Amino acid sequence: MNSLEIPNISFIALTNTSHKDHTATLEKVSKAVDDIGFITVSDTGITANDIETLLATYKQFFLSASKNKSAVNMALTGSNRGWGDAGAEQVDPNANPDYKQVFDCGPELAADDPLGEHSYYAPNLWPVEPNEFRHVITSYYQRAIVVSLSLLSAVAKSIGEPEDFFNDKFDKPMALLRGNYYPPRPNRANDQDFGIAPHTDYGCLTFLATDGTPGLEILSKSNQWLPVCKEPGVFVINFGEMLEMWTNGRVVATPHRVVGSANERQSIPLFFNPRYDVNVAPSGATEKILAGEHLTRRYDETYIHRKRATHR
């Protein structure tokens, strides 16, 4: 496998059953699901210009004054909402903390919703600057969720489940949108320093927009790190360990990383996960595994401020 063999699909062909390429597109999804763990998708209706505006908005925030960012520092909360400085995460305990800034936001529920007690539905934190930050980010968030749920419908079909298998389980999704800013890799960096260290994503589906700068690499079955790089408006999709577990291995979660380079890089993943109380244990399991409990365990192992809280 090399980067050119990652299937690329048209969202139009995927969602239009009358499209001449619909069947061939579903076959590509099946290959991604059970073999590669990655796929790229175009024609979503979210344009290159939309992504460039989104990237510019995030970058303006990441390069803003420390006071502006510190006011929404997620380390002051018990959740993953707001800004995280370089070193705020450590996805690999054997590597140094990840070298990137992040900004996280997610769903907000009605005040009387019982799920609101969980941190995955915590109130979002919004910076004062840029002025349009909240509007730009939340508008994209809603559009990305719609596309992601359609992609999951295709995944369901590819593993022999009804097309609407996931729909009711994602009515109040733990959908985390993140802006990543990877600064240029410093000269002092060694082989234990990464933009983000090797890992598999924790949840179900990741819908990733990037600025087109190389950096993302996936681990092939021959144990080689291979690049994945797409321009704004073409999205990289991969599947996480929750979905692999939930489907009893019918969906593959593939390790990936960002080493970093002399160039700065931005990416915007939407981590699309089901409602907190959905049972994601594989068929035939004797005990339930709640989606929210699975994520809690993994996040507590990753976020530096949550590690500190659990070891007090």
Classified by CATH, the class is Mainly Beta
Alpha-carbon Rg, integer: 19 Å
**Could you tell me how far the N terminus lies from the C terminus, measured between alpha carbons in angstroms?**
45 Å
Determine the structural class based on helices, strands and strand pairing.
alpha+beta
Q: Could you name the CATH homologous superfamily?
A: B-lactam Antibiotic, Isopenicillin N Synthase, Chain
Assess the beta-strand content as a share of residues: 15-25%
CATH topology, by name, is Jelly Rolls
Please tally the β strands and state the result: 12
Provide the CATH architecture: Sandwich
Poorly predicted spans: 304-312
Mean pLDDT, all residues: 89
Q: Biggest β-sheet, characterized? A: 8 strands, mixed
Helical fraction equals 25-40%
Question: What general form does the structure show?
Answer: globular
Spatial arrangement of strands, main beta sheet: 1-2-10-7-12-5-4-3
Compute the number of structural domains: 1
Description:
The protein is an alpha+beta fold and 312 residues long. Helix content is 29%, strand content 18%. It has helices at 11-15, 22-36, 48-62, 66-70, 133-158, 241-246, 291-300, 304-310; strands at residues 8-10, 38-42, 82-84, 101-105, 176-182, 196-199, 205-210, 216-219, 225-227, 235-239, 256-258, 265-272. α2 packs across α5 (133-158) and α3 (48-62) crosses α5 (133-158). The radius of gyration is 19 Å and the shape is globular. The chain starts with 7 loop residues before the first strand and ends with a helix. Mean pLDDT is 89; it is low at 304-312.
